[in-house]
Amino acid sequence: MNFYVISCGYRAGGFSKKCIDSVAPSYGEIDKHIYVDDCSDDDTSTVLRRMPFNKHLDIIINERRKYKIRNIIDIISRYGFGPEDVIIVIDGDDWVKEDCIEKVISKYKSGKYDYIYTNWEYSHNQEIGISKPIPNDDWNPYANEWRTSALSSFKVGLWNKINKKNFLDISGNFFKVACDQAYILPMLEILRTENNGYSRVGFINEPLYVYQFNENPHRLRLSENGVKDSYLGSVSSKFIRHRGFIP
């Protein structure tokens, strides 16, 4: 079992360095931090090119936008991860607290889990996020409230079980928004079905992940297009839930 961090950023600017710096203390625990600049049109690629070389850090600068899900697919294919390998997802302009990654890895090493998530907090006011434990084995990930968000992590074997049609929007394209729900909800449904409940899902009820929401002026939700993007996110989320799991 090897551990990898994947970060996909767009217009992350200096927050890309903050993300990478927060993972760096865990380089002894992880094999790679793979950071993707998804064809940003700001100074993100410049910031990344100035990062000092480290064998645990791979930087990929896309020449065209792929968005989160397609980036994860391409990275899994490129690196040839095994089914027991674990991917920890940290968005490219977010960061994690001290010991976050070590706590996640320790929980995986117990051998009990295929998906682990943590609680989180907003960067601008430290308000605690919405992540909560799954209440019972009858909880339906598609019908009930969204509570299994950042930090997300999963075994590659679980990812490989997802029918890739779950990743496609109504037009047959990879989702550009609501990406977390597009891949996390199928994982939870698979684990619930295979195990008659959520015994293979782990939760760390500490705000170990810092969600950068209001501080980056280049985030799409804060730009001139922000209202449109927020609307698209809401529509995509509703579509994912209404369509349900595709086996």
Notable features of this structure?
Spore Coat Polysaccharide Biosynthesis Protein SpsA, Chain A, eight-stranded mixed sheet, alpha/beta, single chain, 247 residues, 19% strand
Cα Rg:
17 Å
Number of domains: 1
Total strand count, please? 8
- In angstroms, what separates the terminal alpha carbons? 27 Å
Largest sheet: 8 strands, mixed
Please give the CATH class: Alpha Beta
**Which strand order do you get reading across the main beta sheet?**
3-2-1-4-7-6-8-5
- The CATH topology label is Spore Coat Polysaccharide Biosynthesis Protein SpsA, Chain A
CATH superfamily: Spore Coat Polysaccharide Biosynthesis Protein SpsA, Chain A
Helix content: 25-40%
Given as residue ranges, the uncertain stretches (5+ residues, pLDDT < 50) are: 222-228
Mean pLDDT: 93
Name the beta content range. Answer: 15-25%
Total helical elements: 7
Derived from helix and strand composition plus strand pairing, the structural class reads alpha/beta
Bulk shape: globular
